[in-house]
Amino acid sequence: MTQKLVRHILDTIGELFPDAHCELRHSNPFELTIAVLLSAQCTDETVNKVTLDLFQKYKRPEDYLAVPLEELEQDIRRIGLFRNKASNIQKLCRLLLDKFDGEIPEKHEHLVELPGVGRKTANVVVSNAFGVPAIAVDTHVERVSKRLGLAGIDDSVLEVEKKLMKKVPREEWTQTHHRLIFFGRYHCKAQNPKCEVCPLLDHCREGKKRMKPSSTRKTITNK
Fold first, then answer.
1. What is residue 222's predicted lDDT score, i.e. its pLDDT?
2. 1-191: what fold?
3. pTM
4. Residue 138: CA atoms inside 13 Å, Cβ hemisphere, count?
5. Which residues form the HhH-GPD domain (predicted)?
6. How many whole angstroms separate alpha carbon 57 and alpha carbon 44?
């Protein structure tokens, strides 16, 4: 893929979603970390509904440790894998107090030490909370990148991230991350992508496959 085509793809998605942003509601790095941890295999919409009350009840790491695990589980029971996530939240809070003075660390290598925080979560936190350019590859970013040829169809999540980092200017990493998510969430959906109105159809392997049967039927009908 040429750099010119990469630029065209980025600019086109940027025109569609110029104001793409992190949709997880938070007011500080600690809340963002908890929200991203909860968002694994769960929609941002559901997480925001849960954290609306959660962040009123729990303000600091100490607050999460002051209640029994069972109580925290009940507070987030609408979230998928809530038991495991509740356990990780309390372990994370304990480590924050023991090792980081109760504050979310700014360095990526320290963030991934926290229970429940993987590479993707750490990328989201450093980019949104601390302004460090990063590309977090979630299911939307992975799907869109592979469909548009920005990454190989069999690439791992890490390989997708590395290829995007190589092709996208560093100062655009965070912005591109958000725009790819919006493009995947609201346009290039997993099950019902809007191929028929997509300005990038000519560059999309999946789109061409999906539109081909439609075109064939139309040709037969016209005959």
1. 45
2. Endonuclease III; domain 1 (1.10.340)
3. 0.88
4. 25
5. 38-186
6. 20
